[in-house]
Structures are given as structure tokens and as C-alpha cells.
Design goal:
By secondary structure, the protein is α+β, with helices and mostly antiparallel strands. It folds into two domains: about 25-190; about 200-335, Reverse transcriptase/Diguanylate cyclase domain (Alpha-Beta Plaits, 2-Layer Sandwich). It contains 14 helices and four strands. Helix 4 packs antiparallel against helix 5 (about 85-105) and helix 5 packs antiparallel against helix 6. The relative contact order is 0.07. The model is unreliable at about 1-20 and about 335-344 (pLDDT under 50).
């Protein structure tokens, strides 16, 4: 017989369950990125205290700033999944204002420059994760805060320092912010119809669901499936089918209300989220989607997105309603009986 050693536990399996959950819990990138940013800033501050540039550096102030940054990193890491986007904007702005406060009390050029290095990190973070409005606000907070810190610190060459940092920050905010926004738009948009794709719809829908749960307003989801689209592709070609989908997306988008969220869910299926709309009121909105200009009809399934329910569960209920409608239409076609069910 060949002796076999007992299986070795991996580091993951050796950890207690509670520690495992805390260390491996899935956190959004916006959370762990900000946590690492603050941790890195804190470690830089503590390193500066351990190895000061000159004897005049305010080591006590820098050490306190480093500890606060590390504490903020831990807080964001632990509660990152519960923080809304506006909360992240406030936390990032707080980091910028803290750096400006340190600049105003640094009293030395070396301390000022070390602190100012944190501004580009915050600008890169904001440009990558925040919407355009948030990026502009972060740029203003950094520019105005740094300028105020320089004036209060009484350092020489204030204008030169301020121009260098401000030009750097706004270059990051404008160039990287525009690039990140374009990439996000491409990632969340269906290239054929210009509507949201599945992932983009999930982000927008979850945001509306959170608002509906806070306000108690109804939220209705509709799944729309084109009738006979496969036959159009087979008989007239995929180019004609693609053109039809693109035109349909354009016409539907123009007929919906400003707050309605329409997405191509895949193939010839679309999903429509109607905020502040009960299922019994959805018919009026769906009526606007009747398109006489195109040779296509569609069937719809409707479900109310309930409190505490996941998006996939709501879509599954709306899909079940859709298939009920589709089956009824098949009965009508087979028997010549018109059912009392909605189809365009």
C-alpha cells in the first residue's frame, strides 16, 4: 500500500468562518479602491514621520493624519457595500479637505509637497468612479482647498505651487474623466439599439429599486418580446432584422417618459422599468410603444418589483406572465379565438 498524507488545509479553509466571511466578502471596486487609497496615504504619512525630510517637519500633525487615513481605510473596507455614491463623494472630498488642512499647518515646503501628492490619487479615483458632476466637484474642492491651505500656511511661491497642482488635477479630471465616462457608456450600452444592455440595466434598475423601497412608491417591470422576429431574420436577412431593432429602439426611446428605463435584454427581448407606476397603470405607458411605422408586433409580460425582491426574481415573474400571453396567442392563431390578453 502507498501511504498517503492527510489533505492539507488551504489558508482559506484554515481561517475561522467569521474571519473568512469578513476577509473574502465581495466588496464593490469603488469601496476597496478608496480603502487602498487611504491606506497608502496613511502609510506614506507614517513613513514620513519615521524618516522626516527635515527637523522642522510637523511630525505630530502628519502622524495624526496618517492614523486618521488608516482608520478611514478600515471603515470604508468594512462598510463599503452600504455606502451610497453620494457618500463616496463626501468621503473623497473629506480626504481632499484634510490634506488642505495639513497644508495650512505644515509650515514647511517639504510637508506641503508630501501632502499635495495625495491630490492626484483622489483625482484619479474620482475620474474613474464618479459621474461627471462628481468629478467636477472633486476638482473644485481640491483646487480651492489647496489654494486656501497655501495662503493660510504662509509659504512662499504660493502661486507657482497652486498652478502646478491645479493644472495637474484638472488635466486628470477632464481627460481621464472623459475617457472613463466613455468606457462606462460603452460597457453599459447595446451597440445596435443605443439602449442599455443587460449589465447597464441591472445597475440602473437596482438604483431605482433602492429609491422605491425608501419612498414606498410602486415600481413595475415589463418584459417585451417581439412576435415573429426569427421569421423576419430568416426570410429577409439579419441586416434587415438589425435595422428593425435599431429603429424600434429609437422610436421607443422617444416615446417613453424621462424616468423610464428601457434596455435590450438579449436577442429580440427588451425590459422596461417604470418608476412610480403600478402594474394597473402600466398599460397607458405601454400603449405609447405601439409602432405603426414598422412591420412588427410584440407581446408583454408585467410584474411589480416587490420590496426585498431581487431583480432576477421580478424578471422571472414578468417572463412567466409573458409566456402566458404567448401561449394564449398561439391558441388564438390555432383556433381563431382572440384572448383577453395584451399584445400590441
Amino acid at each position: 500500500m502507498i501511504a498517503t498524507s492527510p489533505p492539507r488545509l488551504s489558508a482559506r479553509e484554515a481561517l475561522p468562518p467569521s474571519a473568512l466571511r469578513r476577509l473574502t466578502a465581495r466588496r464593490p471596486a469603488i469601496a476597496w479602491s478608496l480603502s487602498l487609497l487611504f491606506l497608502f496615504k496613511g502609510l506614506v504619512c507614517l513613513t514620513t514621520v519615521a524618516f522626516p525630510i527635515s527637523s522642522q517637519e510637523p511630525t505630530g500633525l502628519v502622524a495624526t493624519t496618517g492614523l486618521v487615513a488608516i482608520a478611514a481605510a478600515c471603515g470604508v473596507w468594512l462598510w463599503g457595500s452600504r455606502i451610497p455614491m453620494l457618500g463616496y463623494e463626501f468621503i473623497a472630498a473629506g480626504g481632499s479637505l484634510t490634506a488642505s488642512w495639513v497644508v495650512s499647518h505644515a509650515a514647511t515646503h517639504g510637508g506641503m509637497m508630501i501632502t499635495a501628492f495625495s491630490y492626484p490619487w483622489i483625482a484619479i479615483y474620482a475620474a474613474h468612479f464618479f459621474p461627471r458632476r462628481g468629478v467636477i466637484i472633486q476638482g473644485l474642492v481640491i483646487s480651492l482647498g489647496f489654494g486656501a491651505g497655501l495662503l493660510l500656511g504662509g509659504l512662499s511661491y504660493v502661486v507657482i505651487y497652486w498652478i502646478i497642482v491645479t493644472v495637474t488635477i484638472w488635466s486628470i479630471c477632464l481627460v481621464l474623466g472623459h475617457l472613463s465616462e466613455a468606457l462606462r457608456r460603452q460597457a453599459d450600452t447595446d451597440p445596435l439599439t443605443g439602449l442599455l444592455n443587460r449589465s447597464g440595466f441591472q445597475i440602473a434598475a437596482n438604483r431605482e429599486h433602492a429609491i422605491a423601497q425608501r419612498t414606498g412608491s410602486p415600481l413595475t417591470l415589463a418584459v417585451l418580446d417581439l412576435d415573429g422576429f426569427k421569421q423576419i431574420n430568416d426570410s429577409r436577412g439579419h441586416l434587415v432584422g438589425d435595422h428593425l431593432l435599431a429603429e424600434l429602439g429609437r422610436l421607443w426611446r422617444a416615446r417613453l417618459r424621462a424616468g423610464d428605463i428601457l434596455a435590450r435584454h438579449g436577442g429580440d427581448e427588451f425590459v422596461l422599468l417604470l418608476p412610480s407606476t403600478a402594474p394597473e397603470s402600466a398599460a397607458a405607458v405601454l400603449d405609447r410603444l405601439r409602432v405603426q411605422e414598422l412591420p412588427i408586433t410584440w407581446s408583454v409580460g408585467i410584474g411589480e418589483w416587490l420590496r426585498g425582491e431581487s431583480l432576477s426574481d421580478c424578471i422571472a415573474r414578468a417572463d412567466a406572465d409573458l409566456y402566458t400571453v404567448k401561449n394564449a396567442l398561439r391558441v388564438r392563431d390555432a383556433r381563431g379565438v382572440v384572448p383577453l390578453l395584451a399584445s400590441s
